[in-house]
Amino acid sequence: MQMRSSGYRLLACLAVVALAGLPTVAAADVWDACEKQSGDLAVAGCARAIESHQYTGPDLARLHASRGVAYLAQGDLDHAMTDFDESMRVDPTYARAYFYRGNAWYRTGDFDRAIADYSEAIRLDAKSPKSAYSYENRGSTWGAKGELDRAIADFDQAIRIDPKDASAYYGRGVARQRKGNLDRAIADYSEAIRLDPKDATAYVNRGLAWKIKGNLDRAIADYSEAIRLDPKDAKAYYYRGVARATKRSLQDALADFETYSRLVPSDPDGPKFVKLVRKELSAR
Prior knowledge:
Layout: H1 27-35, H2 39-51, H3 57-73, H4 77-90, H5 95-108, H6 111-124, H7 131-144, H8 148-161, H9 166-178, H10 182-195, H11 200-212, H12 216-229, H13 234-246, H14 250-263, H15 269-282
Helix pairs in contact: 1-2, 2-3, 3-4, 3-5, 4-5, 5-6, 5-7, 6-7, 7-8, 7-9, 8-9, 9-10, 10-11, 11-12, 11-13, 12-13, 13-14, 14-15
């Protein structure tokens, strides 16, 4: 299941602001350097804003959370956690910090703590449409724990709050597929695709559901669309190769397994299937 990493979206950077060496920076510029940048620029901008001592209370909490998000995007979980903790200390009612700390706990594999943080974000954001993001990520976390009914219930709630959230339909589809409810999973993937036609992963998973149902033509069509959208989607080549081999379209299957082997050279399954298909072709 996919995690929503940035439900509380930060504004995109419109221009790079060179901060080093400036003797003074206006308050708005300091704030923007934190909120509108990414990567090292965001970390530095947020640090400058925090150390300016111009911000207190909710504003300071927001700055710490924003720097935590920048650290999290860089994979620096320790510094991210420190900033999220500080954000909560400054303003225990700031839901965004709990949401992102939940994402950090999820990355560490501590699903129980992630669920606790998403639950607190939901409580604090109860009257806000933003709670859909926390329901969605909590649903993904329940799914990672194997609690599929709870996952589905959270995706249901996310969809009720935001019926246009493609990733919530996708997540519910994954949970339903894992429960063996293929028809409803396909319906969810189809809705996710309707809302976000460029999501290659939804096509791959719908293809898997069609494959399990025995409809190889529809499965191959979905894998092919996933590859068109993302020519480096290794899983799509692998699964299409399996479906084509099952249909005895061995030359096409060989091409897919060869591509998969190039994309994922560390997986021994690629060369193994290439060898098997070549052997069958030579025996014809």
